[in-house]
Amino acid sequence: KSDREGKTVEDLAPETSFSGDYKGKQGASKSIFGLLEIILSDFERTIDKVSDEEKDAEAKFDEFKKETDESTKKKEGEKTEKETGIKDATAAITEAKDANMAAEGLHEAALDELSTLKTKCVEGE
């Protein structure tokens, strides 16, 4: 298509400073592809390295988690045993205090009885 004056887009395009077909800089393109290949190999090497490191880290974490879980279970068992021991000791202390109070009461009663008997027997009343 053309405009009112009959000129096409190609007619209106500015003059270029080169002539002939563009062949590009072949040498530069080879070095660019070389750089891209190096970048690609670096990425592949990094992916392999990171994958290996992740596997190692995951294995170490799994081992740590296993040890931690076992330790936690063991310590929870020890805690339960110690809490049971505390309850038993508290009950024993309470029983001992009750027995002591009962013994003190019996001792007082025995002393009173002894005092009464002493007055009746020894002093002769």
Could you please describe the fold and organization of this structure?
The protein has 125 residues and is mostly helical. Helices cover 81% and strands 0% of the residues. It contains two helices and no strands. The longest helix has 97 residues. The radius of gyration is 51 Å and the shape is rod-shaped. The mean pLDDT is 87.
Produce the secondary structure layout.
Elements: H1 9-12, H2 26-122
Tell me about the biggest sheet? none
Classify the beta-strand content into a percent band: under 5%
Number of alpha- plus pi-helical segments: 2
**SSE order, as H and E?**
HH
- Report the average pLDDT across residues: 87
- Overall structural class, as computed from helix and strand content, comes to mainly alpha
User: What is the CA-based Rg, rounded?
Assistant: 51 Å
Number of strands: 0
What is this entry, summarized?
With 125 residues, this protein is mostly helical.
Could you name the key traits of this structure?
2 helices, mainly alpha, 125 residues
